[in-house]
Amino acid sequence: MQYRSTIEKRWSSAGMAAAFAGLAMVLFIGAPRATAQISSYGAKGLPSMNTTMGQPDTTPTVLKHVGIAQHLNEQLPLDLTFTDDTGKLVPLSTYFGKVPAIFLLVYYRCPMLCSQELEGLVSALKMIDFRPGRDFNIIVISIDPTETTAMAADKKSEYLKMYGHPETADGWHFMTGTQQNIDAISKVIGFEYVKLKVPGSDIPQFAHASAIEIVTPQGKLAQYYMGVEYSPKDMLLGLDEASSNKIGSPVDNILTYCYHYDPLTNTHDLIVSRVIEAGGLLTLVILGGFMLLMFRKDLRHGQQPARAVHGTARKVNG
């Protein structure tokens, strides 16, 4: 009876833990903060909050014009010219012909998502053997034509240092360009964004989604990866296939948005995709681990009294 009572208490504790974990996940999912989108091997995206749990689509109007259209096998306009981080005007063709490339459209003064995207890329690259400059190139182009070569150089220095392999500097290319060329490359990639004017500031902001693209040595779009964190195995596989000019398949177009100023309400907001599936999995893992721990403790506590009683019985019978 004592052991049964202990079990019932443990189950009560497990129930409380489940309730706590559920509440924590509700707070996590509902909180208006930046949430990273983490892709495991073979899973390149997670559900957007706009299509989960039967909730109505509350996406601001401006974000309805933001997205990523996957233009697989589309040829990049390699004759377009951009200014690199040394101030030199170069055509995109400079970086193609021998190895594939990882391509990103960001802006250097982005207050959050672009940095998360680049940090996610660096984290994935640290875990694979391929090296920029030797096995592939990294091409980062700002969507803000007002940004400068100095900003591009600073960003390159920051992420090259984070990567920890200064010898790969020749494989990192942070670039700026004219509005005309930015529009041209964005259209081919399928990168749709909206420029926002913030009252009282001359610095523009952009509502945009987060994704990186892998491009073949011939300049054809081979693979899209959504979110701000990327599976190293998928990254390695994508680069390997692109090096052989293989074109991947479309992935779930589930987006993480960067959006700050809402010109309609004159407020600042952040809309990011909520990690529903990851949150549910985390809840199950926490609850399962807690229950396993409690049962192991119950077994230990339940067996010890039994052995003690058994031992006492032997002394009496003896």
Q: What is the structure about, briefly put?
A:
This protein is α+β, with helices and mostly antiparallel strands and 318 residues long.
Can you tell me about this structure?
This protein has 318 residues and is α+β, with helices and mostly antiparallel strands. It folds into 2 domains: 2-30 and 277-317; 49-274, 3-Layer(aba) Sandwich (Glutaredoxin), CATH 3.40.30.10. Helix content is 38%, strand content 16%. It has helices spanning 2-30, 113-125, 149-163, 179-189, 232-243, 276-317; strands at 67-68, 81-83, 89-91, 101-106, 137-142, 172-175, 191-192, 194-196, 205-209, 211-215, 221-226, 257-258, 261-262, 267-268. The strands form 5 sheets. A 5-stranded mixed β-sheet has the order 6-5-4-10-11. The protein has a 3-stranded antiparallel β-sheet with strand order 8-9-12, with no helix packed on it. The chain has a two-stranded antiparallel ribbon with strand order 1-7. Helix 3 (149-163) links the parallel strand 5 and strand 6. The protein is globular, with a radius of gyration of 26 Å.
Which features does this protein show?
single chain, 318 residues, alpha+beta, Glutaredoxin, 2 domains, 5-stranded mixed β-sheet, 3-stranded antiparallel β-sheet, 6 helices, 38% helix, disordered C terminus
